[in-house]
Amino acid sequence: MHIPDGYLSPATCATFYGAAVPVWVVAGRRVHKIVKNRNVPLLAMGAAYCFLVMMFNVPIPDGTTAHAVGGVLIAVLLGPWAAVIAVSIALLIQALFFGDGGVLSYGVNVINMAFVMPMVGYGVYRLVTGHVSLTSPRRAFAAGLGGYIGLNVAALCAAVEFGLQPTLFHSANGTPLYAPFHLSQTIPAMALAHLTVAGTVELVLTAGVIAYLQRANLPILRLNHPAVPDTDAGLAPARTFGWRWAIVGLATLVVLTPLGLIAPGGAFGEDSPEDLNLHKYHLDAVPTGLRHYAGFWHNALFDGYGFGHDQHPVVGYLTSAVVGIAVIAAVVFAVFALVRVLRRADDDHDELEATVA
Amino acid sequence: MTTDTAPSWLLQSQAGLCPCGCIGRRKKGGFVEKTISGASGLLRQAMFSEDMAARPGLLQRIEPRLKLLGILGLLMAAALVQHIEILLALYALTLVLAAASRLSLSFFIKRVWLFIPIFTGVIVLPATFSFITPGEIVVPFGTWFGHPVGMTSQGLTSAGLIVSRVAVSISLVVLLTLSTPWNRLLGALRSLAVPRMFVLVLAMTYRYVFHLLGSVTDMYVARRARTVGVQSDVTSGRAFVAASAGALFGKSHALAEEVHMAMLARGYNGNVRTLTPAKVTPRDVAWLAGSALIAVCVIGADLALR
Lengths: 357, 306
What we know:
A: 11 helices
């Protein structure tokens, strides 16, 4: 996933450098606040460790080996913001001294592997661990799952960055100037490689290291989990189940929205009359009633999930998705608020009746 | 006279097999061998770079900050160019620079082309077909359901562009790395407004990598010494990798604590000092002006050809 120079346009690289600078600034402040002046050796150690983790070959069943990135592992061990800096530095050393990953594309690699990967992976880890002790097997599993999902989301980012190049940067006769594959090719290719082999390797290494440290070196795990009790006996009573899982599921669906961009064809039974294959239904013309009611409503804000006249279909699709989610969320919120108000009024009413009785 | 360069036997990638060729069937190395050879490869590459940087050549004499700026300018020009001919001319320029910096050309070409540009060529090959890059078909492969298919002129141009641009970019970075000692290169990063603290962490990281690499090699060599026959059990192999990575984290954390205490004992108070940069000579200014001029000419020629 180390993108070399030459695959991405200078405009893309500049954009991602611009995005990486605030990430570094925030990470630097957060880390400094936590570890004070110990941060220099601690971060250098984290970065060196990250560099070396990428060298560990993990055996996979067909007899070959693959290596992990380790971004989520560092995030679990040292915290996500320290991971941002450690992975960034490891990537810089690889790019400058060992020619692995480009210098102009360094900003892109930082956003994919040093920001998106540890943040997403650590988020998954925190959600799945929930309220368990430091030695719970669920913690190792959660770290592994975080590694798997973090790596795949980072790979999806890389695939989108590659896939946008031919659409955005091509010469007058249609020659792609940078990476030539479209989103519909890059996303499945990266997904296939990362959902199967690379993701599994990341899962095995991340979960394996956490499980090993749970057995052999618990104080190291306490660095980033100072308040977590060692065993289940020390746990405070668990909180109620809550909304967490519903939100996780919905957030996953939201993140997957761009998949609609690569789906070919249309949904069955949703074609507009002019797209119908009339011949198939032994018809000569669109039935008058269908034609009349098909055009009944013309005032949709995003007609056909896009802007008018099909300009910028990708941006239109994503904007429709964001606006749609926002509108649905607002409606649901309003309904719940209304129900709460009504219920409170009802309770007050009951209370009043009870006092009267 | 004593020499401070690495001996040649150390830099050879493989211990010599029997001179008559390979004996018996060669087994594919397992994860242990791969990690050990990866570790020694890393050391070899770093030592070789230091040796090259100590040679008296053109790029080695240039002040690191200006060298970095010049190379970055050329790198950006290569990224902006949209014509294969101009990229090939830039590639020729990197070969001239390599020769002037006393790098062996065969080594330089091998180091650049193995393996990223060749890998790039393989993965962009499908994009030369009309399925992915539609356009004017120049190498026809027959028809598919009535549509002619084959390699398109657009697809071939695009593949040529990306492979040559990748090769030029890697050549430029390799020139920078091989002609600059690592501590000077890190110091030069200061000229790009990289914060001092970041440079300090970077320098310590580079040092730690080689220290901890020793631990990794020790663990893996010990593992190999304990293994009789071929290691084929994937589960125990994975358990070993996880345990060694976990143990390495423990070691590196202990090292960080020790280094921190040693820094405090030597009066570290959070202020960072970096190496004072060398004096800028007229030669350095000429280099910067020359590389800027080339970058501008390259972009200008590219615009004129469009």
